[in-house]
Amino acid sequence: MNNEKNTAKKTERRQESGKVSQADTLREVMHHLGRYRIFLVFSILLAAVSVALTLYIPKLTGNAVDYIISEGNVDFPDVFRVMLQIGICTGITALAQWLMNVCNNKMTYQVVRDIRNEAFRKIEILPLRYIDGHPYGDVVSRVIADVDQFADGLLMGFTQLFTGVATIIGTFGFMLSVNVTITFVVVLITPVSFLVANFIAKRTFDMFRLQSETRGEQTGLIDEMIGNQKVVQAFGRGKDVTEKFDEINERLRDASLRATFFSSITNPATRFVNSLVYTGVGITGAFAVVGGMLTVGQLSSFLSYANQYTKPFNEISGVVTEFQNAVACARRIFDLIGEEPQTPEPEDAVDLEKIRGNVKAEDVSFSYDPEQKLIEHFNLTVKPGQRIAIVGPTGCGKTTLINLLMRFYDVDKGTIRVEDVDVREMTRRSLRAGYGMVLQDTWLKTGTIRENITMGRTDATEEEVIAAAKASHIHSFIMRLPEGYDTWITEDGGGISQGQKQLLCIARVMLCRPPMLILDEATSSIDTRTEIRIQKAFAKLMEGRTTFIVAHRLSTIREADLILVMRDGKIIEQGNHGELLEQNGFYRHLYESQFSQ
Amino acid sequence: MKSLLVHLKNYKKESVFAPLFKMLEALFELFVPLVMAAVIDVGIAQSDRPYIIRMCFVLVALGMIGLVCSITAQYFAAKAAAGFGTGVRHALFEHIQKLTFSEMDEIGSSTLITRMTSDINQVQSGVNLVLRLFLRSPFIVFGAMIMAFTVDTKAALIFVVTIPILSVIVFGIMLITMPLYKKVQSDLDRVLLMTRENLTGVRVIRAFNKENDERERFEEGNQALTDAQKFVGRISGLMNPLTYAVVNGAIIVLIYAGAIRVNVGDLTQGEVVALLNYMSQILVELVKLANLIITVTKAIACGNRIGAVLRITPDMESGSLKWEDAERMSGKGKNVPAVEFDHVTLRYKGAGADSLSDISFRAERGQTIGVIGGTGAGKSSLVNLIPRFYDAAAGGVKIFGRDIREYDMDALRARIGMVMQKSVLFKGTIAENIRWGKEDATDAEIKEALEISQAKEFVDAKEGGMDFMVEQGGRNLSGGQKQRLTIARALVRKPEILIMDDSASALDFATDAELRKAIRGMKENPTVFIVSQRASSVQYADQIIVLDDGEMAGIGTHEELLGHCPAYQEIYYSQFPKEAAANE
Questions:
Q1: Where are the domains of chain B?
Q2: If you measure CA to CA, which chain B residue comes closest to A78?
Q3: What residues of chain B lie within 8 A of the CB of A282, using their CB?
Q4: What integer best gives the mean pLDDT of chain A?
Q5: How far apart are the CA of A274 and the nearest CA of chain B, in angstroms?
Q6: Best residue in B25, B248, B558 to probe A by mutation, most A CBs within 10 Å?
Q7: Are the beta carbons of A198 and A265 closer than 8 angstroms?
Q8: Is the N end or the C end of chain B the one with fewer CB atoms within 10 Å?
């Protein structure tokens, strides 16, 4: 409980400091870059070298032109010297460029790898409360898309920014070294291109927003309708849905045309400004040559500088937006990484080796939302081998109890003890190893069937695996699959029915033989004939094991040592079958309704 | 991809003008070095200031014409691309509406969604770029070469050698890296999958204490991704330095050739500057071209995927018989069965075995038919044949005496209320969702449907009642609530045939019983099919069909089946142990 307060405080603090956080984010970025500092330094050095040489080559070319004046007036030794210089510079530049690419790649991808690893490590220790409370897609997109965006925008942006600035300064310096007046012409005209690009970007921002909003709206509709195409067809709604789609589609056409067109003006417009710069240099340069203040070769280098000088301005304005986007992405990742983990285990946490199956709940209170009280002052004593049935209508909160027993959530008040040890004072590993859990909401991981069965005991022998599968009546099904136990299962267990998935989950627990069981009895998905056999196998498994079972079947309920009747998240009645019938309460109503028409 | 280009049909003018104007712009750009050469050779050599000023006006004029051409080209390209995207989107969406269930099973809806969204966007921006740049870049590259020829034939030969070398570098690197990029993508997919899995399966992973193993697995996959990225990065990082080196090498040779030819008087200084400028222009265009080709290959791959979906022709044809005509012809006779199966066999596309074989039964008007059996026994397959979601491979299905294939498909489905296994609701109010069943349903009709489906109580308790907003996928409702609303949606159209495909599984026994009671009490007296795993849900049906592995293991009333059908006995006694049945 204390922890939650802390978390709440932390998030508050974080929100308060929303404005400062851009600097914080950058600090965190630098922290992650720390290990690769050497690459960053190299990258900057190499960039400086390649920029300087790239700029030096037009000057050399200009020199060469000056040695080639007219018929019979060519200074061959000097031309050869310049050619050699250009060759050397080109070689060094190309090498520097490539090495810089390699450095940047290494730095970027390794930082990305580190951040992803860190994020994943955090996911493994996040409290269930966080995972249940955030859409999976959101967390996944932080780990995948945001990290990519961050890498592209921030690191690439960084180098682009650096080379851009270096190019501007370098060009400026070279131009000054050649001729001051013409440099001023260039410096005066170039900001115009910058202004034009900015002007257009501002105007088009709204159009882009409209386009992506409309696109989002359309994707929402597509997702909903195509995702449930069978329902759409069963109700013959294809035409209405298409009409709705077309309406959005038409709006998208307009939005898309405007956004695409207006944004694509940027390039021609800045190109035009560049041609003005070019002309300006041409006219002042030519006059200077006529006036004897400049050589033709120098004019030629000036012309190519004029082209180079304007380009980084446009790039830098792009970098700034990308940079902001990247910082926003970085923030989202660091928020995830900085999330409060589950309560750490105390130093002297007990590693319970021998769990016999004593479970005790003492005055337990719990709720997901402090506003809405759920379980209050709940007491329960379970002895080894006892069977506890949890019954109640759909959505009554039966999973809450599982959450508390497995310590997916911590109780607000009171204690839950296993073998008289508070679950908060033992290692999670030993507590959870004590339970075998089969949920109705089956989950299999991508991998082979064997990997899935041996999840709880990777060292199991082939015989043990087959024995567990046989006991769960899934062996013959597996053998009929093309690759038997090596058959690959995909994300949602594609190709395998819900019932068979549940059987695999049962085999998984069969193999571990834990001292305590948490079972979620199937309502509908397992075929009833197999179920008889499963129940027999379960009965064998349950022998001498403490079992908590979310029960739907009367036989299970009647054989339980204790029945917990739940409604609206609360435990409203407890006792055995006979006692509860005598109470004449909600349980009796439930029981009787099963036999009524 | 080709099949998609028909959607540019309405934009013929735009598709021709966009590249045309772009080429005009490029053409004017190619004149610039020539003008500059004239400035050097005439203006400067003869100190002719007015000539220099005139030439500069020519430069500005060239720039302006270029700007106008370019903006015109951008407009036409944007218009054609936006129109193209809209057309393809509409065509694909409409096409998907026509796909049959078996086709949908084959393709999968997530694939279709990707085709509809990101694939089309890719193609649209590909079309836009192609119209704008695909002609421009090669035009400038080859244009620069041709202009070089007009300056000096011998020096231009350097261009003839350089351009193929550059092409080999650019295309070679692209050919090598493309499959590598594919590998990076699949590695990234694996990392994504693992992240997702650890969220969806968090309970199981923690219950089995697999956190450390998962972390190792993730770090391994992540390292593989990083290695692949670094490898491909190192190769594609060669492109710029190499092209840069080649172009500068060509410049060195140009200087050398220029020096010799100027020395003998075949070339002027200004012309050398012009040649050098043309070489630089090629370098700039090459970088653009390489980016463009990557975008275009991506767009073509996306276009092919879209084309593949569009090529699928629906494998079922609708009949033309309207419901009213069918009713008239059969004379509303009481003795015509509502649904009749005659030795029906069903095999799904690509399946190795029949899902249903040799099924025969008659469901009389107003009867309740229970369908029971294990997982994979074919219960859903059986009821899916009634609204003709699939066609039988052999045998015949008759609805009110007429072959199901004679019916107009929409008319047939309009008379059937289908509640599917997976309860799907759409974003919108509860009332809007119910109106899916009947567009013009009155509030009273909706209320009635809600009452029968046992949903009234919880709907009334919701804020706004029937106007309560259901979130996408019905996230803000519990499983049982969703099921009851999907039942109400089927009921509101007062169907002749009501099919409930295991659609009460999330309801507790009491509610389930109430629901069945209410449906039997409906004055329209529909023919009802109830599919269930629970014996208690079908126990009181007029006929119970027992399915076992696609075959009919028995048909009859509860008492009859309990007497002589072993499959049914097994199901029943597994749910109601013998003594419980005896107590009854």
A1: 2-310, 365-386+415-582
A2: B259
A3: 36, 39, 52, 55-56, 59
A4: 81
A5: 9
A6: B248
A7: no
A8: C
Cβ contact, residue pair B251, A86, below 8 Å:
yes
d(CA B463, CA B452): 21
What is the CA angle B203-A439-A441, rounded to 5?
85
Chain pair A-B, CB pairs under 8 angstroms: 432
For the four alpha carbons of A124, A136, A492 and A390, in that order, the dihedral sign comes to: positive
A248 in contact with chain B, both atoms CB, cutoff 8 A: no
- pLDDT of A585 reads 82
- Which residue, among B278, B274, B244, has the nearest Cα to A89 in the 3D structure? B244
Pairwise CB contact (< 8 Å): A117 & B222: yes
First to last CA, chain A: 47
Record: contact B211-A125, CB cut-off 8 A: yes
Look up residue A222 and give its two tokens. Answer: 């597509």
- Nearest 5°: CA angle at A381, between A377 and A386? 140
Q: What is the ipTM of this complex?
A: 0.79
Note whether A233 contacts B101, CB cutoff 8 Å: yes
Query: B133: pLDDT confidence band, cut at 50, 70 and 90?
Result: confident
Listed ranges A536-540, B198-202, B208-212, B489-493; the one with the highest mean pLDDT: B489-493
Of A271, A428, A526, the CB nearest to B375: A526
Residue-level pLDDT at B90: 93
Q: For chain A, positions 46-65, list CB contacts with chain B under 8 A.
A: 57, 61, 64-65
**From the CA of B394, how many Å to the nearest CA of chain A?**
23
- B198 CB within 8 Å of a chain A CB: yes
| Residue in A93, A105, A531 closest to B237 by CB | A105
CA B565, chain centre distance (Å): 47
- List CB contacts (< 8 A) between A125 and chain B: 211
Q: What is the DSSP string of A483-541?
A: TGGG-EE-TT-TTS-HHHHHHHHHHHHHHH--SEEEEE--SSSS-HHHHHHHHHHHHHH
- The string of pLDDT tens digits covering residues A178-195 is 888 888 888 887 777 778
Going from the C-alpha of B62 to that of each of A512, B59, B139, B253, B276, the distances in angstroms are 81, 5, 17, 30, 20
Is the CB of B24 inside 8 Å of chain A's CB atoms? no
Q: Is the pLDDT of residue B170 over 90?
A: no
Interface check for A463 against chain B (CB to CB < 8 A): the answer is no
Per-residue pLDDT, averaged over A276-280, amounts to 84
Which of these CATH numbers, 1.10.8.60, 3.40.920.10, 3.40.50.720, 3.40.50.300, describes B365-386+415-582?
A: 3.40.50.300
Buried b (16+ CB within 10 A) or exposed e, B107-141: bebeebbebbbebbbbbbbbbbbbbbbbbbbebbb
Q: Is B287 exposed, middle or buried (0-12, 13-18, 19+ CB in 10 A)?
A: middle
Residue of B293, B372, B371 whose CA lies nearest to B528: B371
In Å, how far are A38, A95, B230, B239, B516 from A106, measured between CA atoms? 11, 16, 6, 17, 66
**Residue in A closest to B36 by C-alpha:** A282
The CATH number of domain B2-310, selected from 1.20.1560.10, 3.50.50.60, 1.25.10.10, 3.40.190.150 = 1.20.1560.10
The pair of structure tokens assigned to A46 is 């190499």
Query: For residue A240, which residues of chain B lie inside 8 Å, CB to CB?
Result: 439
Separation of alpha carbons A260 and A201, rounded Å: 12
List, for residues B434-485, the tens digit of each pLDDT value.
999 888 899 999 999 999 999 998 898 888 888 999 887 777 888 788 889 9
Separation of alpha carbons A525 and A501, rounded Å: 10
Cα–Cα dist B273/B461, whole Å:
84
Q: Is B44 on the interface with A (CB under 8 A)?
A: yes
